[in-house]
Design goal:
Length: 305
């Protein structure tokens, strides 16, 4: 990366189980020789989004999300809120899941990730637009889920004492016991129409979700396509058995699973269902969202990694 370029680092102090702020000095020490660094600490998800949008509007060449997948999601949405922005995205993974970093070969070591940021080269990556029938939308950088998978994410919000992959696994087991309900969906995968009961529908630009589940193991962040994993209405024992397969990515060979790659997916929802984007809840059942459209945004942003 060239010198004398403005860089904004947005650090989530709650990341890394509340230890995010402890990484500040190490990051600044690595960054200082390369560029003028504007270091900001966010106090909420919306604040992180605002700081990223502000940096993109000001013409910063690089906006770095120092945090987990939620921080990356909000920083990406802040950058993308500025039409025609040339601001690049950087990521220093210090969260619990770090699925975006995993999918994009970003080192999990904070110092190594920061070094590669300032020595690396940019590349274009795909994003996607997720929009409901009311016109509300967000930009997705990694994954989307509806049904059981989204109920798991909702349950993780209630778990405070466990972190990382174990937290997600605990939420999965809790959801298997208490919230195991199929969802009836009418789905258009480009020109292909599917109507069925499903345990969940998962979409991925990246390969991994939930801090360790390779639900779309063949996904690529630069092919202009959204990978999908549609799981049939299966029994609890079958779903439990498929958990291990999902960790390894071998579920794609199961007769209970349909994998696709598409440019646009339109989902019409007959049953009230939860939805999430990049590990952040997009809609709860009580929000009564009946339709959502997910559209690929090829080569939407430059990632420096």
């Amino acid at each position: 990366m060239q010198q004398n370029k403005d860089v904004r680092i947005i650090l989530n102090p709650a990341a890394d189980n509340g230890r995010g702020i402890q990484h500040k000095e190490a990051i600044l020490e690595i960054a200082e020789p390369y560029a003028r660094v504007d270091f900001m600490v966010s106090d909420s998800a919306e604040h992180a989004r605002h700081l990223a949008k502000e940096a993109a509007e000001a013409g910063y060449s690089l906006v770095i999300a120092a945090g987990g997948d939620g921080t990356v999601h909000h920083v990406v949405n802040g950058i993308m809120a500025v039409p025609g922005t040339e601001s690049m995205l950087g990521v220093i993974p210090i969260g619990s899941g770090n699925d975006f970093a995993f999918a994009n070969d970003i080192p999990m070591d904070v110092s190594e990730a920061a070094k590669r940021l300032f020595d690396g080269k940019p590349r274009w990556i795909d994003l996607a637009r997720v929009e409901d029938e009311n016109g509300r939308f967000v930009v997705m950088d990694n994954n989307f889920g509806i049904g059981f998978d989204a109920m798991v994410v909702a349950q993780t919000e209630k778990i405070q004492r466990i972190h990382g992959f174990l937290k997600y696994l605990t939420a999965v087991l809790k959801s298997l016991i208490f919230y195991f309900n199929p969802v009836h969906l009418r789905i258009s995968f480009d020109e292909e129409h599917v109507v069925q009961n499903t345990l969940f529908l998962y979409l991925g630009i990246g390969t991994r979700g939930g801090g360790g589940f390779l639900l779309t193991p063949d996904a690529r962040q630069d092919d202009g396509l959204i990978d999908s994993c549609l799981v049939n209405d299966v029994s609890r024992p079958t779903a439990l058995n498929m958990l291990n397969m999902g960790i390894k990515g071998t579920h794609i060979h199961s007769p209970h699973v349909s994998m696709r790659m598409n440019k646009q997916i339109v989902i019409e929802i007959d049953d009230l269902a939860p939805m999430y984007v990049d590990g952040e809840m997009f809609a709860y059942p009580e929000d009564n969202i009946r339709k959502v459209t997910i559209t690929s945004l090829p080569q939407a942003i430059q990632l420096l990694a």
